[in-house]
Amino acid sequence: ASNDKFIQDIPKVELHVHIEGTLTLDLRWKLTQRNGATLRLVPNGPEITARDDLYAAMDSIMPDASRMNNEEERDMFFESYLEGFNALQVKEDFYDLAMNYFETVAAMNVRYCEPFFDPQGHTSRGVQLETMMEGFRQAQREAKEKFNVRSQWIMCFLRDLSPASAMEHYKAALPYRDMIVGIGLDSCEPGRPPSLFEDVFALARRDGFKLTAHCDVDQEDTDDHILQVASTMGVGGSDRIDHGLNSAEDPALIDLLLKRDIGMTLCPWSYMRHTTYADLGPRIRTLFDAGVKVCMNSDDPAFMEDTWILHNVLLARHLCNFNDEDIVVLAKNAVQVSWADQSVKDAIL
Ligand code: ES4
Ligand code: ZN
Predict the structure, then answer these.
(1) CATH number of the domain encompassing residue 222
(2) Gap from CA of 39 to ligand 2 centroid (Å)
(3) Is Metal-binding found in the keyword set (predicted)?
């Protein structure tokens, strides 16, 4: 197997991380204090008034996932994730959020990343698009200069909200298109296929944006969603699938992913909440050995026991017994399926 230092040192690209999911408890406390806001970990939960209570409280709302079924675990996750948004109010908050992420992953040798953001989770609270975008823009500039971390943003739509809301936000974000490389689809998946968002994806495609969609793991209709994204039907000619792990059980889907050269962003720590080592390793191994361009990512590090991209590559190594060459393949996959300019790609590995 590969060694830890090799994995730490290899230049990295991160393609699946929700910037709001990088809000650490430390930063959350700081922003909440600065804004004079109340801090709760779940909607209508107890207000946290002492910094020292925060960590124990987080442990108690994210209990041993093995004791919850998939749905309970998923709903609890989304509730606590969206509750965290309340800490983000002014431009400086979004700047601090992004800078904290860039600085953390710079120390793990990330050279380029494409973080997601969820504009609808902010506008619904009365925070203007301009507020988040200007905070992100300043952080993006400084991260390139100070940390040598380049980035482009992916605007995600919350699929449990309406296609009309997605379209509205898409249009409103066009003034920031120089910062945004792609459009994604996240949040709670059952009953919300990518095809519902066909119109906004088609428009974004025509406007030159890259496309991706979450096809979460072990949800009832995931296979159909993978098929929609991978075929010309669904969102049409997508470049990536986020998660998509269930394709490992379907040789025809694997063939389609290979034929259409679709990259796949995996987040192994996030799957540990609702699957087992025994299940997970073989599925990742199947996709990797088939030649699907998979890469390792963190998803929501602050909500997953502070597991960042480094920990996810280490876990993948452990699950699949990857050697140095395999780790290089994973790193190269990430570069290849990224939406960076060729000159940026060439400078990474
Ligand atoms: C997410 Cl784990 C997960 N799944 C779907 N959407 C998300 N947004 C943030 N984290
Ligand atoms: Zn995700």
Answers:
(1) 3.20.20.140
(2) 24
(3) yes
